[in-house]
Amino acid sequence: MHLRRSFCETEGIPPKIPKRQQSHLVDALVDQSGDVQLLGQDGSVHTAHSSILVESAPYFQALLSKNWSGENTKDLSLPVPATGETIKTFLKGLYGVPIGLQAQVGKNFPQLEDVYRLADACGARQICLQIVHCLEVSEANVSWWIDWLKEEHAPDEYEAVKKKVCSFMKSSFAPADLWDFFEPDTMQALWEVRQGDSRAQRALEKSRGKTKVAQ
Known about the structure:
The protein is mainly alpha-helical and about 220 residues long. The protein has two domains: about 20-130, Potassium Channel Kv1.1, Chain A, CATH 3.30.710; about 135-210, no CATH class. It is about 60% helix and about 5% strand. It is built from eleven helices and three strands; from the N terminus they run H-H-E-E-H-H-E-H-H-H-H-H-H-H. It has helices at about 5-10, 20-35, 50-55, 60-65, 85-95, 100-105, 110-120, 125-135, 140-150, 155-170, 185-215, and strands at about 35-40, 45-50, 75. It has a three-stranded mixed beta sheet. The longest helix is centred in the C-terminal third of the chain and has 31 residues, at about 185-215. It is elongated. The termini are far apart. The relative contact order is 0.08. This is BTB domain-containing protein. Pathway: Protein modification; protein ubiquitination.
């Protein structure tokens, strides 16, 4: 017996779209029907929907006043300088493509710190929270996040970042529960000492290599 499903039987069942295709679908949707343009510091132009921006970020609510008819495409400046890749990642996040997924599949994914800076300036807290949860602290960005900890932030974001910074610091120094109670200034000072020691060690190894060659 051949079983067939009618349209009515399948209606209401959402199609399964591979996650890797979601980002491309968002690009196509925005490019075809967006009514505003965001301008990047590198001269790039990015189309978006005013309704999405207004609902997602308070910064755009002030720019997109009710007096604007929406008939003509409106150019919008950003509160902080941002490259094209940073803006693109930010916009996709507003449209529902998770930041973590973009980081996994993106070829030219920007630094999370740059995306966070833009999202924070626009007041897009949902994007900021995504970033701190998928953040991986490393030697390349730990100083940036320690400086970030010196400022006031939303409690859920602050605690998530501090936990990851403390975990990284523990792995770089002798583990101790005391790290959880260190202030950002203390972390910064200790990390600078750690960096100084690393540079001294590399210089010593380099000089030893030259000595062996000379012999």
